[in-house]
Amino acid sequence: xxxxxxxxxxxxxxxxxxxxxxxxxxxxxxxxxxxxxxxxxxxxxxxxxxxxxxxxxxxxxxxxxxxxxxxxxxxxxxxxxxxxxxxxxxxxxxxxxxxxxxxxxxxxxxxxx
Amino acid sequence: xxxxxxxxxxxxxxxxxxxxxxxxxxxxxxxxxxxxxxxxxxxxxxxxxxxxxxxxxxxxxxxxxxxxxxxxxxxxxxxxxxxxxxxxxxxxxxxxxxxxxxxxxxxxxxxx
Lengths: 113, 112
Prior knowledge:
The complex is a heterodimer. By secondary structure, chain A is mainly beta. Chain A contains no helices and eleven strands.
């Protein structure tokens, strides 16, 4: 059974510092991995999707890497801003048929001005 | 089309009552998913549909839960005889087969 873990559960940084968020998964047979952002009481916004054949994906200040063999992904957010404060979730999709995502517990980020 | 929509956004109900939630997916998406998220946790898969067929159900989906997607478009999730443990955010997502899932804003259920 796939298990996804995100450490730390919470993170507080001063504005301008780079953020590093970690995600690990137990079964390397994944189809892709996705990073989401969730604001309090809201739904999920997709940030980046990395296919299993890719090593990294970039969008603006966000960069996500994937090391499938070691079961790890890292989300980097450069030059953090107070607007980046949110919960960040990673989710993996299995190679097997079906499309369900298995999520980590999330990392709650606070960027202090 | 502006994305996945869910209705209602918030629902407060008394224990033992039945509730029904609706999800409208992105119009061309043939797959629709339901997830449940409790406070401080990541979402957990409940069930998914391909067109009108329900293809997988999680063990989390007890006999009190039922989901339908009658014409392969919108979906409903019904919870009968609600319990306090059902209090959660219920998230709907849709996708084209094999592609990225797009999530709706969720329905927050509070059972008193």
